[in-house]
Amino acid sequence: MMRVGVIGAGQIGSAIARILADSGKYEVIASRRKVELARDLERHGVTVTRDNREVASKAEVVFLSVKPGKAVKVLDEVADLLAGKILISVAAAVPVERLAAAAPGAKVVRAMPNIALSVGASFTAYCRGPGVTDEDVEIVERLLGEMGSYAEVDEEHMDAVTALSGSGPAYVATLIEAMAYAGLKVGLPRDLAYLSSAQTVLGTAKMYLETGLHPATIKEMVLTPAGTTIEGIFYIEESGIRTALMRAVEAATKRAKEIASTLNSGG
Ligand SMILES: NC(=O)c1ccc[n+]([C@@H]2O[C@H](COP(=O)([O-])OP(=O)(O)OC[C@H]3O[C@@H](n4cnc5c(N)ncnc54)[C@H](OP(=O)(O)O)[C@@H]3O)[C@@H](O)[C@H]2O)c1
Description:
Elements: E1 2-7, H1 11-22, E2 26-31, E3 47-49, H2 52-58, E4 61-64, H3 71-78, E5 86-89, H4 96-102, E6 107-112, E7 122-128, H5 134-145, E8 148-152, H6 158-166, H7 168-185, H8 190-211, H9 215-222, H10 228-239, H11 241-264
Parallel strand pairs: 1-2, 1-4, 2-3, 4-5, 5-6, 7-8
Antiparallel strand pairs: 6-7
Bound molecules: NADP nicotinamide-adenine-dinucleotide phosphate (NAP).
Residues 7-13, 31-34, 37, 52, 65-68, 70, 74, 90-92, 112-115, 166 line the site of NADP nicotinamide-adenine-dinucleotide phosphate.
């Protein structure tokens, strides 16, 4: 069984460790300093340690999921043990070049999943660094496939992907909450308001993904002349929801670039 390590078993790291261990296909070892906070991973068969070097030496593929500002420091600590191994960093904004400089000899992949990986429904974009072969990518895609869907992208798109699908669950959760509030306003019981809202987001996304119908076409299918939906859509359009989302993703992309430049200047 392939041995996979996770350095930084926080929110994203422990979800990665749990999903891979639960698949039954990988032996997983994970680390964090406050190791007692990761103990529940042991119920999933994950070996838990506070020793990053133990993770790097035992694993064949290593995920790095510490906060972006710590990525290079943590790599410095384990770099000699990563030579020839695949290193998958999920740290936002840290460029491949910087990761490769900190862990020379490692085969660096930079990935951006989202928190839906905890239920196997992440969208993960990744890009590969120098020396990463098609065989390495096969291994990476098998791992990412356990967490949801994935796509290889050029590194120049990673900050935008971070802002769209990395941060996206926060935008969509706001939408689900807003639609549920709307349900409450028109008298739906609370559980029904949240369930109908979330299922509608899930179903619409599934419809797009499975049929390939353009979202505008899906919308047209619901819009009857003088019907109820067009009444609702009138207010949605008036609210400027599209420009709000466009501004949100644009601002988050800019922020990812700012964080990257802080890291590059060593700050
Ligand atoms: N949250 C998201 O939705 C999301 C989505 C995509 C990507 N990411 C990326 O994933 C990374 C982690 O984010 P997160 O939200 O999971 O943060 P988090 O919950 O704070 O996890 C980071 C973990 O790193 C551990 N850590 C810190 N210093 C360490 C060290 N020296 N050695 C080993 N472990 C150490 C921390 O635990 P201790 O303090 O106990 O060591 C903590 O559990 C970030 O780089 C972020 O950009 C996050």
